[in-house]
Write a structure and sequence with these properties.
alpha+beta, Alpha-Beta Plaits
């Protein structure tokens, strides 16, 4: 097991957090993680995260659901079990639309949920550590990984950018 050390600092609101991240980046401090109690607008741009691929995964899964829904109905009503309902043609596309739509939404929703859980490393079997219980309520937290025994310098960096509380955490992974 490898032991990693992190320095965490918390901030009272999202504006202070964004300012602190920008100041730390100017000092060339590597930010391991940022944790917030709610989504912060613009945080992904400040941290220079690339755009998520979840919308593409949802679209592809929706297309697959649409094709399966329409294809199954077309096969059942024209080949496997052709029934004449009140003189309608066997390939009655308007009657296929509700089921096709619902399967499109179902497949896209499942793809988005599972894709989010996998990309966020959440879900069954994940071992996420909560460094500060206040982050789930009203605090914003920056985590810095300690490398080359520079923990004191990182603590001072967090305090200089306005962190209200700074802590050192040792984690076995």
């Amino acid at each position: 097991m490898e032991e990693k050390t992190y320095v965490s600092g918390y901030f009272p609101d999202d504006k202070d957090l964004i300012v602190a991240i920008k100041e730390l980046q100017e000092k060339n401090v590597d930010i391991a993680d940022v944790r917030t109690p709610f989504p912060v607008h613009g945080l992904d741009k400040v941290l220079k995260y690339r755009r998520s691929r979840l919308p593409r995964a949802g679209f592809v899964a929706g297309v697959i659901g649409c094709a399966i829904g329409f294809g199954f109905q077309a096969w059942v009503f024209t080949q496997a079990w052709p029934l004449n309902f009140g003189g309608k043609p066997f390939m009655s596309v308007p009657s296929f639309i509700p089921v096709t739509f619902e399967l499109t939404v179902l497949f896209a929703a499942f793809a988005l949920v599972f894709g989010f859980l996998i990309s966020s490393k959440l879900g069954p079997g994940s071992d996420n550590i909560i460094y500060d219980e206040g982050v789930t309520d009203d605090r914003f937290q920056i985590l810095l990984e300690v490398k080359n025994a520079n923990g004191d310098a990182l603590q001072e960096s967090l305090q200089s950018v306005g962190a209200l509380g700074v802590q050192l955490h040792e984690v076995k992974s």
